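Entry type: protein chain
Record version: 2
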Amino acid sequence: MFFKAVSKYNFETSRNIDSIFKDKNENKVVKRERLVDLKNNFYFKQLFPVINKNGEKIVWINCFSADLNNLENTPKYILVDIADGENMYFNLYINLTTNKFYGMRINAGG
């Protein structure tokens, strides 16, 4: 479900960028900043599960890029909350009961 959500976000965002930015160089820069590249970037995932008032199982997934050369300094037990950083930080909700995702948010640039 996680990979499906990111793929759908990338597809829709890419299509929107194509319709707004006609200049190919500018288009490429914006895509590099706004699309999530799960193949070439490693992301830590923090999972926060809850059951909502309707009894549905929801997981908030908080993702942030990781320095693979400095893993020992990566926070493991606290919420990582970064104000910018573009596509190196993103989060979304997955409803495990309905098998749907929503609220995917990519951080803005600094």
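Comment: The first helix runs from residue 2 to 20.
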